[in-house]
UniProtKB/TrEMBL annotation:
Keyword Membrane belongs to the record: yes
Keywords: Cell membrane, Membrane, Transmembrane, Transmembrane helix
Protein name: Probable membrane transporter protein
InterPro entries in the record: TM_pro_TauE-like
Protein's UniProt keywords contain ATP-binding: no
Taxonomy, superkingdom: Bacteria
Family: Belongs to the 4-toluene sulfonate uptake permease (TSUP) (TC 2.A.102) family.
Subcellular location field: Cell membrane; Membrane
Regions that span the bilayer: 7-36, 48-70, 82-104, 110-128, 140-158, 178-199, 211-233, 245-266
Name of one Pfam family that matches: TauE
Membrane topology, from the record: Multi-pass membrane protein
Chief localisation class: membrane
Length: 268
């Protein structure tokens, strides 16, 4: 692998970590479209572009999710009772959705990803937040919600925060605890998603060298440490920069990246 790709993956990991710390936003929305474009330039076969990007992004989220979970736990912001009930559904939904993703053609998967990211960007722009209006459902109901959150997360390689936090705040969980609990939920999503994409990509022909299923190891190994390194810097900058304005700019960036991903897979 040429040195230029090493630099690209290091830069991507650092940027994802910086944005996560600055805006509290997971990296899948950034990683997947940029990874897709990088894989196009590296000559990855068209039919594997989206799957390899999703699997690699899921794996790269694991160390960042672990660090985030530990941080929120130290601050007492994790509702472990909710984590216990929602995790079985999260694991099942994420893991089995990777098998669905493996059957979806790259172009269709890219369109689904782009539509989801556009909707998430619009939500960021208009800042719609559900009003606390009900209590948490039964443990079975919470696990069922986890099934849906995990399934969608696997198809777009996110840690679930954009879905988990609104659900918990709607159920009268305070925002700090909703964020902390969502961070804890992000780890099983990333683990189940990465495992599923590894299994589904195992033995698939045409993948680059140094892949583990649908996880491209050089990108994972270069992005992960720099993402963790830059996250605390982003968190410090959050107290000095106009975060509300940056979120609006970032929303347009997400839209642009999602559309770029669609363009990349349709012209590859």
């Amino acid at each position: 692998m040429d040195i230029i790709w090493w630099v690209a993956y290091v830069a991507l990991g650092g940027f994802v970590g910086l944005m996560a710390g600055l805006l509290g936003i997971g990296g899948g929305g950034i990683m997947v479209p940029i990874l897709t474009s990088l894989f196009v330039l590296q000559g990855v076969p068209h039919e594997h572009l989206a799957h390899l990007a999703l699997g690699t992004a899921m794996a790269a989220i694991i160390p960042a999710s672990t660090a985030s979970l530990l941080s929120h736990h130290r601050h007492g912001a994790v509702r472990w009772d909710i984590v216990r009930f929602i995790t079985p559904g999260i694991l099942a939904g994420t893991f089995f959705a990777t098998f669905v993703a493996a059957l979806i053609p790259t172009r269709s998967l890219a369109i689904f990803f782009a539509c989801f990211m556009v909707l998430m960007s619009i939500q960021m722009l208009i800042n719609v937040k559900p009003k606390p209006s009900r209590s948490l459902p039964s443990p079975v109901g919470v696990s069922g919600v986890g099934l849906g959150i995990g399934g969608i997360s696997a198809l777009v390689a996110i840690g679930g925060g954009s879905l988990t936090v609104p659900f918990l705040t709607w159920c009268n969980v305070t925002l700090p605890r909703a964020i902390g609990t969502s961070a804890a939920v992000g780890l099983p999503i990333a683990l189940a998603g990465a495992l599923g994409y590894i299994i589904n990509g195992w033995g698939v022909s045409g993948l680059p060298d140094a892949t583990l299923g649908f996880v491209y190891l050089p990108a994972f190994l270069l992005m992960a440490p720099f993402s963790i390194l830059m996250a605390p810097i982003g968190a410090k900058l959050a107290h000095k920069l106009p975060v509300a304005l940056l979120k609006r700019v970032f929303a347009f960036l997400l839209m642009g990246l999602a559309l770029q991903m669609v363009y990349a897979v349709f012209t590859a």
